[in-house]
Amino acid sequence: MVCDAGAVREPDDDVTELLDEVFTDLEAADGACLAELEPAQVEAWVSSLLAAWRSDLAVADPSLVDRELLARCVTAASGDAVLICRAVEALAPASNAAAAAAVASLAAAGVDAPDGASIGRAEATEAWVVEPLEGPGRGSEAAVIVGFIHPNSIEHVVLADLTVEANGVECLVGLRLDGPAAGVLPLVDQDAVDDEDGSPSLPFVVTTLEAMVAARRIVDAWLASEASLPEIDQPGLDLLLVNQLVVAARLRTTLGANAPAFLSDIDRGQLLGAAGVASELSPPTEELDAETAAANAASLRTLRAALRSHGVESAPAEMVDVVASLIAGVVPGLTADETEAVGFLEWADWLGALIGLVRGGAGTEVTPSSLVDLINRCAEISSTIPKADRQYVEFAFSVVLDLWTQADVVSDGRLTADGHRSLVPAAEQAWGPR
Q1: Which of 48, 92, 93, 424 is most buried per CB count within 10 Å?
Q2: 30 domain-assigned
Q3: Alpha-carbon distance 320 to 404, whole Å?
Q4: Residues 266 and 301 in one domain
């Protein structure tokens, strides 16, 4: 549901429908769906929910909808309701008092939740920045990673993607939450060198920072983006929107009295990038279609050159259609999250996976992880999957593999003979002239 950019509405049927859907799902899980998540995951889920009426469902006063959400939580009187109220208390300063009152009301009724006290109480531990070896420059990208730990000892990180714009200013283009730092940081020693020529082994360097310094850098990039929002693709825009409230809360905690006012005011106004939602989701223009056609043609040339020694064999038409629709990113019947994930896969990702599978032949192991490995090892493409994106790309390929398995492209985790024969014709169909 998308409104025109800049439109303002009071809570209406769209909001009511969304809340009805949320509480129907929670009731179906006996009020214990969120209890299975770690505290940061609960906060991220609530952050995305609160973002809905601060972006797509733009309303004049988001706190009014927050209070309706809290009232429904009190009525639901479940462990999940407690977790939602505690998260709203931590993430939405304008609704802090109402959320605290809702938590107290639930407690008086004898309703609590495991680890509820850990919600909103994560403390920063250490931080890192991952930057190109040549240092920042126009068009360069960096990732600032801040580690946090909850009172129940569960750890996670906030990861901010930054880019240097043409004017030389570093801007914020993505916000994510992930697991413990050990599983997110690139496994690289900043002093590591190649044994042969003494050059650095990887094209980036990891530097340890104080958490306050890292938080300030994220804030500065955020403020720069407020003035001039960089161009962000749709998956990146979605991540930027849904995680802003939870990241703002982490930055407020880290910076304390030094936190700028906008980190508290953000939940009262429009989220960074929200004004661009309608235009980002508009139907493709002719210019975009031309760019897509050019990228498709370039991908086909690369594929044909890489596989010129592999003949094209006939394959079941239905199987080719399934594979082609996934490559093209047009698959009916998927959830919104699944559709977004498949759409996140770029031409280079598909090229790396397809070239590797065709060369591997029937019987090649096919898992989300193995497909990412094929991309990273493919000599025909210049890009690789960043460590920070690997989990999401693997999720995207898990959606692909579910459909490939149903279509018998893959069986028991291995590429079938028909599946092998279907790959090149499917690419030709997806990327060829229409």
Answers
A1: 92
A2: yes
A3: 10
A4: no
pLDDT by residue (tens digit) across 162-176? 887 766 678 888 888
Do 208 and 181 belong to one domain?
A: yes
Q: What's the structural domain count of the chain?
A: 3
Q: Are 345 and 329 in contact (CB under 8 A)?
A: yes
| 276 and 290 inside one domain | no
Pair 323, 416 in one domain = yes
Distant-in-sequence, close-in-space partners of 189: CB < 8 Å, separation ≥ 6: none
Give helix 211-227 / helix 244-255 axis angle, nearest 10°. Answer: 130
Please answer whether residues 128 and 185 qualify as being in contact, where contact means their C-beta atoms are separated by less than 8 angstroms.
yes
What does each C-alpha distance from 231 to 59, 165, 219 come to in angstroms? 25, 10, 19
Does residue 4 lie in a domain region? no
Alpha carbon dihedral 112, 115, 121, 126, in 10-degree steps, equals -170
Provide the domain limits for residue 411: 286-431
Does 167 share its domain with 260? yes
What confidence tens digit (pLDDT) does each residue in 90-138 have? 999 889 899 999 999 999 999 988 878 899 899 999 999 887 765 544 4
